[in-house]
Amino acid sequence: MAAFPETAFSTFSSARGDLPQTGEPRTAGFGIYLHWPFCLSKCPYCDFNSHVRSQPVEEERFLAAFRKELAHRAALTPGRTVSSVFFGGGTPSLMRAQTVAALIETIARYWPLAADVEITLEANPTSVEAERFKDYRAAGVNRVSLGVQALNDEALRALGRQHSAQEALRAVGLAAETFDRYSFDLIYGRPGQTLAEWRGELEEALRHVRDHLSLYQLTIEPDTPFAKLASSGQFSLPEADFGRALWDLTQDIMGVAGLPAYEVSNHARPGGESRHNLVYWRYGEYAGVGPGAHGRLLTPEGRMAQAAIRQPDLWLAAVEARGEGLTENVVLTREEQGDEFLLMGLRLAEGVAPEHFRAIAGRDLSQKRIDALLGDGMLECTPEGRIRVSAEGFPVLDAVIADLAA
Fold first, then answer.
1. What is the pLDDT of residue 39?
2. Which of 31, 312, 318, 353 is positioned for an S-S bond with 325, CB 3.0–4.6 A?
3. What is the dihedral of CA 277, 279, 282, 288, to 10 degrees?
4. CATH number of the domain that 87 lies in?
């Protein structure tokens, strides 16, 4: 997992969903993220901290290390109630269900779990993994997120995926039978994709959706196989105008279907939003456990930014030696916190409240800058006095944030 969730675009069309408003950002929830870094293969677009092993993973040894890191984070966060747990990766559905159960039990030993705690596990929709859904449910998982990525076999091969479209839809069907809540991802803006093709793929996806769908526009990340192909002229993304047309089509179709964007690339029916990801976007508090995991914890010293060693074996050795595998553990300045709050909150359809920025950053946003961005159509105000990026502002979100934060 990166420091924050990654998506391609930065705001929404007018087809927005309304989320319950939060109070002061400290009430945004407390989540726990566990990063399982192993995959069967590395996808050419992926820049996440994932590793392919030629030998079996020492799962019991990693489980013991995860437990040690959970104990370390628990000592830093007394009195919290866990609102969400997220098993990400990598491919956490490669873990045995017994390992997942043991980790959930360890979390419940150190913190009380909310009555409606959301426990999500990411999974690849291969036949073998999908058959394990019932075991994961018995272990305590109550939501799965499937990396479908495309609904045609040619596109799946181009994206380096190991499953077919038929396997993917079978896995979605099994998820629907097994869990009350599930989501799956699709990637669009692929080379050669047409508007008609994407419309058809979306319409097919909507026949299998319950309350949540994640739709990411393909980006070329540094140090990935796609980046190397792009640098040699063998791979390119659609032009910006066509990318915008794809995005607009996505917003229109999803809005009509009753799943408007509540975040840049995430769509849900009211109440179906990912509670764990809302902790990030509302600038809540979360503990990151595992190789490469990031966290943001509120301590007596201030808001701590934490990051763990990325290389699994080095992380494992560090945890075994000293009880944690952190490579970064620093107090953020109020200015840094204000910047992060805007970066995350302006991804949401609900936007941000200026008074929340003041509570975090210790200063007011410039009304002059807000007025100028409103006048330019980059921002809009809600009846509740919140500010959010407009449909016209999304191509230049970074510039909008920089202007607001200055």
1. 81
2. 318
3. -100
4. 3.20.20.70
For every residue of 172-225, DSSP letters joined together read: HHHHHHH-SEEEEEEEE--TT--HHHHHHHHHHHHTS-SSEEEEEE----TTSH
In a domain, 103, yes or no: yes
Note whether residue 310 is domain-resident. no
Instruction: Provide mean pLDDT across the span 121-139.
Output: 88
Q: What is the C-alpha to C-alpha distance for residues 242 and 230, in angstroms, rounded to an integer?
A: 18
As to burial, measured by CB atoms within 10 angstroms (0-12 exposed, 13-18 middle, 19+ buried), residue 109 is: exposed
Asked whether residue 146 is domain-assigned, the answer is yes
Look at the chain and count its residues: 406
Is position 47 within any domain?
Answer: yes
Instruction: Out of 57-71, 235-249, 379-393, give the one with best mean pLDDT.
Output: 57-71
DSSP β-ladder status, 261-263 and 266-268 = antiparallel
Quick: pLDDT tens for 292-330: 999 999 999 999 999 999 999 999 999 999 999 999 999
Look up residue 53 and give its two tokens.
Answer: 């092993």
Entry pTM: 0.90
For residue 263, give its domain range.
Answer: 25-280
Which helix (H) or strand (E) covers residue 226, if one does? helix 225-231
For residues 68 and 121, the answer to whether their CB atoms sit within 8 Å is no
Q: Please give the Cα distance from 49 to 51 (Å, whole number).
A: 7
Backbone angles phi, psi at 365, to 5 degrees: -65, 150
CATH code of the domain covering residue 398 = 1.10.10
d(CA 120, CA 88): 8
Q: Are residues 185 and 110 in the same domain?
A: yes
pLDDT level of residue 12 (50, 70, 90 thresholds): very low
Q: How many domains does the chain have?
A: 2
Taking residue 371's Cβ as centre, other Cβ atoms within 10 Å add up to 11
Q: What are the residues facing 181 on neighbouring strands?
A: 143
Q: Do residues 54 and 138 share a domain?
A: yes
The Cα 131–Cα 30 span in angstroms is 31
Residues 139, 220 within the same domain: yes
Same-domain pairing of 264 and 118: yes
The SS3 of residue 257 is coil
Give CA–CA dist 75/85, Å, rounded.
Answer: 18
Count of Cβ atoms closer than 10 Å to residue 255 Cβ: 18
Q: Are both 342 and 270 inside the same structural domain?
A: no
